[in-house]
Amino acid sequence: MSRDRYFQLLRSLHFVDNNTPDPNGRLFKIRHVYDPFREAVKKNINLFECETGYVLDLLIYTGATTNIRQYKEELVKSGNIAMTLLFPYLNKGHKLYIDNRCSSPLLAQTLLENKINCCGTVKQNRKHMPKLKKKYSQRLHSIFFY
């Protein structure tokens, strides 16, 4: 699709009247499409279908108005977002694969306490990361912890 065609579609695609804003948050323009889609995803996709890579739940981050469950104060925002999405699956023995955007040692520990095994990458400068000896950090790019 060309750039001009994309911008034409973007200009003409509207789900609500822009002159009557909804006071229920920043998603008012897409809420009529987003809410039914999210409910359909929750109702029609079971956990055993995770092998297919289907989306089980989604959360659009809109800043301070996003409904995030405050699970632990120390988890910071990204960890609490992960726990909000995982809440229905806690204490059921599932496995979670995450990237370095929201992973941290504290999140991995919290997930393990809630019977969710966690595997993924983590940034070296994250809070609560163990300090590595210079000889390891200079010659290795990957270090495994169990």
UniProtKB/TrEMBL annotation:
At the top level, the lineage of the source is Eukaryota
Q: Which InterPro entries match?
A: PGBD
- Give start and end of each PiggyBac transposable element-derived protein domain: 43-133
* Name of this protein: PiggyBac transposable element-derived protein domain-containing protein
The protein's organism comes out as Acanthoscelides obtectus
